[in-house]
């Protein structure tokens, strides 16, 4: 059996989708956003201007990443 390494979407892909509001947050991300009083506008700004600082290529069902951004 051959294991195929998944590739995460690049920051360009993420920014294109953030610009057009084509993204979803996990339940965990929504809870963290609300607990930290982060608005949707601040989140979008961070996605548009941030950088990927950690990759999680083996996450299921899709690869994911951690983005550091300031709003």
User: In whole angstroms, how far apart are the ends?
Assistant: 45 Å
Spell out the helices and strands N to C.
Answer: HHHEE
Residue-averaged pLDDT, rounded? 89
Give a quick account of the main beta sheet: strands, pairing sense, barrel closure: 2 strands, antiparallel
The largest beta-sheet arranges its strands as: 1-2
Task: Classify the helix fraction into a percent range.
Answer: 25-40%
Helix tally? 3
Task: Name the features.
single chain, 71 residues, alpha+beta, two-stranded antiparallel sheet, 3 helices, 2 strands, globular
Describe this structure in words.
This protein is globular. It is α+β, with helices and mostly antiparallel strands and about 70 residues long. It contains 3 helices and 2 strands, in the order αααββ. Strand 1 (about 50-55) and strand 2 form a beta hairpin. It has a two-stranded antiparallel sheet. The protein has helices at about 10-20, 25-35, 40-50; strands at about 50-55, 65-70. The chain has one domain. It is about 40% helix and about 15% strand. About 0% of the residues are buried. Helix 1 (about 10-20) runs antiparallel to helix 3 (about 40-50).
Task: Briefly say what this structure is.
The chain is of the alpha+beta class and 71 residues long. The protein has helices spanning 11-19, 27-35, 40-49; strands at 51-56, 64-68.
Please give the structural blueprint.
Layout: H1 11-19, H2 27-35, H3 40-49, E1 51-56, E2 64-68
């Amino acid at each position: 059996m051959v294991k195929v390494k998944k590739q995460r979407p690049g920051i360009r892909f993420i920014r294109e989708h953030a610009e057009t509001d084509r993204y979803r947050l996990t339940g965990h991300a929504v809870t963290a956003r609300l607990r930290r009083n982060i608005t949707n506008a601040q989140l979008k700004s961070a996605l548009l201007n941030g950088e990927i600082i950690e990759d999680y290529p083996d996450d299921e069902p899709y690869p994911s990443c951690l983005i550091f951004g300031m709003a």
